[in-house]
Predict the structure.
Amino acid sequence: MLYQIVNDFPNTIIYEEEGPFISLYQPTHRHGPENQQDVIRFKNLIREIEGSLKQNYPNEDIEMFMKPFNALSDDKSFWDHAADGLAILASKNTCVIYKLPRNVEELSVVGERFHIKPLIRTFQSSDRYHLLGLDRKNFILYEGDRYGFEEVEIDPEVPRTAEEVLGDEYTDSYLGYGSHGGAGNTPLYHGHGGRKDALEIDTQRYFRYVDKFITENYSNTMKLPLILMTLDEYHGEFRKITNNAHLLDKGIRKDYKEQSMDQIKQSAWALIEPIYLEKTKALVERFYKKQSEFVASDDLSDLARAVREKRVETLILEADKVVIGCFDKETGKLERKENTESCNVLDELADMMIKNKGEVVILPKERMPSTTGAAAIYRY
């Protein structure tokens, strides 16, 4: 396979050691007519990549590097089902593709490491969330952040509706109408108790299934805040039975089927934004406190040494800032260079932290506690 569409970050490709490494980012469109221009823009970007390879890596097998990009440009199905953004990481042996739920700045970089800040920003959990749309017969799961919002694709083999989950025990399949009844030939229901009681039991059992499925397959692994969106009458019922520790106390008391995607997104972000801002504020205040105790720094040379020594607990990077230069592999000293974005200090820091399995947080310029582009909280 020339390329693979993935959803995991970090992907194993970032641990490869033999470059050059190619990073491509592009805003894309879900619908026409805007998406008709996406392939044209993509071809322009891959021409830039090919030119950069020829100029900086003339001894490499350039045709081999370009094969997955050329194949993707001809994949009509891919472009017909694009998301809001595209990210591609490619090496000599591997090419992985991300369909992103948010726009990204157009960029192509060929260098000695991947440009991963946009991916970190997309996958960091500080402003991501899940939203569960629920009624007594069906459910839907969304994932969003401050930039994007989309339905989570669930395996079609997974039972989704109450009828699929409960099978023969579903009320409508075993309650029948009697042909003769009481006064006025009112139909009698045959089954285990009255229809209302049976429906309540069905609802409870179905909600337990939904709660278990979402908790085990999404919340416990991704640890994102979960918003419940359902009619007022179902909020109490679901909260009685849930074991999901990530479910927010506040929910959206509306029928998700009656709302547009934009309306759901706006309602969800109104709940998530205060949580995100509070987390960001707490992180920045913690940095200032630790800095006063001399266990935090925004000096690039100092924090680079700490990253190399695995002494950094949390690294905060400015989203769109570029600092041209490289770190000496032996001394850790910062060397300023007049070069292209392929030699970006902040990329190098992000790369080292991710490979060390450390925490990296990407913040917009206005929320950064530093003007250098980076700030680190040390372990000691």
Observations:
- The first strand starts at residue 4 and ends at 5.
